[in-house]
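Chapter summary example.
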Amino acid sequence: MANGSVMTKKTNNSICPHFEKTFSILGKKWNGLIIETLLSAGAQRFKDISGAIQKCSDRVLVERLKELENEGIVIRRTFSDSSLIQYELTQKGKELKPVMHTVHDWADKWC
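The structure predicted for these 111 residues follows.
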């Protein structure tokens, strides 16, 4: 998006690469629920995220968390004085809050 509100398109009518990249992340199964869980509950242990998203297998959840970490949306925190590992949203991830709110509004109206 350019100027904050106008979607830019290439002249060959393809979708804006930034928009396409965003949906390749947010549109991947379970990513939206992981982000929503971390937005609503804050930093979480793996078992807590897994409990909140019960239909997602642990194997897939690990993959998605790694992908979101690689995208700079989630950070994995370890603590030197314990075996505790927590996942939380980065600033980039936290800035998805209004997007998720809008998705909630749309879902309430149409689903």
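To summarize the output: Residues 34-106 form a domain with the Arc Repressor Mutant, subunit A fold (CATH 1.10.10.10).
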